[in-house]
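task queued by scheduler; priority normal; single chain, no ligands, no partner chains; default sampling; output format set to C-alpha cells
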Amino acid sequence: MCFRSACLGPLTSCGGIDDFTHAAASWTLTAHEARPGHELRFASLVERGVSIARAVFAENSANMEGWALYSEAILLPFMPPEGQLVSLQHRLVRAARGFLDPELQAGKITPAAARAFLEKEVVLSPPLAQSEVERYTFRAPGQATSYFYGFTRLMELRREVESMMGPRFDAQRFHDFVLAQGILPPKLLRKAVIERFVPAQRTP
C-alpha cells in the first residue's frame, strides 16, 4: 500500500522514500496538517458556522495551503533545532515549487533538470524528486505553486497590519479573524482584514 501526504507527496512505501520517516519531521508536519494548520482551519469553519457559500465556493488552495505553511512558520521558534532544520527545508520545497511548476508548464526546464535541482538544491531523495516532478507535470499541474504564494501573501498582510497598528497588534486576534473569514482568496482576505479587522481593533 502507498501512503501519500497531501502536502509533500508519497511516504515510505513508494520507491523507498524516507524523507519524512524521522522524528524531526513530525514537528513541521504536525503544524501543517493538524494544529494550527489544516485541522484547525477546518474545525474553525465548522465551529464558527461559516456559510456554505464561503466554505465551499470560495475554497482556494492559496488560502488553505498558505495558512498551513504560515502555521509552520509561526511555530518554528518553538521547535527543537532539528525540527527547525526540517521545517526550513520543507519551506524550501514550497519555494522551489513556485517556479519549477510553471517553468515545466512553459517548457523552460526539462523534467530531468527539475529533478536534478530538487535533489541537489532542495536535498530531496531521488524518488521524492521524481514524485514532485510528476505532480507538477500531470498529477496536479499548477497546484503546487499555491503554498508559497499563499504563505507570502499572508506574511505580507501580517506585516502590513503590524505596521498600521503598532503596539495594538494582537497576533491571536489577527489569527482568529483570519480563520473566521473562511477560505477566501488572498485579495478578499486582505480586504476584510484592512476594512474590518484594523478599524475594529483601533476602537477603544
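post-processing summary
- Residues 57 and 196 are 22 Å apart (CA to CA).
- The chain is about 65% helix and 0% strand.
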